[in-house]
Design a protein that fits this description.
Layout lengths: L5 E5 L4 H17 L3 E5 L3 H7 L5 E6 L1 H11 L6 E5 L9 E2 L3 H10 L2 E6 L2 E6 L8 E5 L2 E6 L6 E7 L2 E8 L1 E5 L7 H4 L12 E6 L9 E3 L5 E7 L3 E5 L3 E5 L4 E6 L4 E6 L5 H11 L3
Parallel strand pairs: 1-2, 1-3, 3-4, 4-5
Antiparallel strand pairs: 6-19, 7-8, 7-18, 9-12, 9-16, 10-11, 10-15, 12-13, 13-14, 15-18, 16-17
Helix pairs in contact: 2-3
């Protein structure tokens, strides 16, 4: 599989990302490779440019990657992350390798990892016929707002009632997102190419259930039983305020999100070990 047109999504607030975009575009111009670029947060611009593009290369940290992923959820194009962040679990490439990896892309020297995404639907008042839908690659979180008051959240998995949590909130993560917010809340790290939903309460009060791993056949339903201020967040990017009685349904997204793995890229578990060594003990 060869690529004849490359898109670049970048973080416009980082000088390093702007410099990297200039490097990437300069390389493409020198090689005669058609290309385009746009800020990762401008979803409509990305979606308009993606048709006819062989790959979308993301220049930034994990936050930039997650913003770009929203666009490829609408137009099925593979993603490659070039890491400018401190951790960068979603990125397969460091900035020093940019030109060599672009050459690999053009020559078709890469593999594709299929990742499970999430779809969340807010049902106001729990009404099954009304809903607003969101995409997330990492996680859907139902969390308390700015005031330090806990929420009561009733959680069902498929046809079964799991628990009613009194907590700061609840995270439903994909396997890719298991190294993020879910892990910080006490959830397990799972293989990112697997297909599961990880359900983890945040600072749960007097609960024996810390985290559960759920089949993608099931939908997780979270009903707001009691809360002073609560919202739903998709990948920390889109926030919607919820009211008592609202239901958030989380399930597997309709198709995989394709991530590019260049030949010779560091395997996930080796990357996890190396990134973990960079974190403060």
């Amino acid at each position: 599989m060869n690529l004849d047109r490359i898109g670049f999504a970048y973080n416009p607030t980082k000088e390093a990302a702007l410099e990297l975009r200039e490097r990437a575009e300069g390389w493409c111009q020198a090689q005669g490779i058609p290309h385009w670029s746009a800020p990762a947060g401008e979803c409509k611009t990305l979606v308009d440019q993606l048709p006819g593009t062989g790959a979308l290369v993301v220049l930034g940290g994990d936050g930039t990657f997650l913003r770009a992923a929203r666009a490829v959820a609408e137009v099925d194009i593979p993603l490659l992350g070039v890491n400018l962040g401190k951790v960068g679990f979603l990125s397969k490439v460091e900035t020093s390798d940019l030109e060599s990896v672009l050459r690999q892309l053009v020559d078709g020297e890469f593999e594709i990892d299929s990742r499970m995404g999430l779809q969340a639907t807010i049902r106001p008042g729990g009404h099954p016929a009304v809903g607003e839908t969101f995409f997330a690659l990492n996680e859907i979180a139902v969390v308390r707002g700015s005031l330090a008051r806990v929420c009561r959240l009733d959680v069902e998995i498929g046809p079964s009632h799991l628990a009613t949590f009194t907590a700061d909130g609840l995270v439903v993560s994909s396997p890719t997102g298991s190294t993020g917010y879910s892990f910080s809340a006490g959830g397990p790290i799972v293989d990112p190419t697997s297909r599961n939903l990880v359900v983890t309460p945040i600072a749960g009060y007097l609960t024996a259930i810390r985290s559960v791993v759920v089949s993608p056949r099931h939908t997780v339903r979270i009903r707001v039983v009691d809360a002073y201020d609560v919202l739903m967040s998709a990948d920390g990017r889109e926030d919607r305020r919820l009211a008592i009685g609202d239901v958030v349904e989380v399930c597997e997204f309709g198709r995989p999100i394709r991530l590019i793995a260049p030949i010779g890229a560091v395997p996930f578990w080796d990357l996890l070990r190396k990134k973990s060594e960079l974190l403060p003990s």
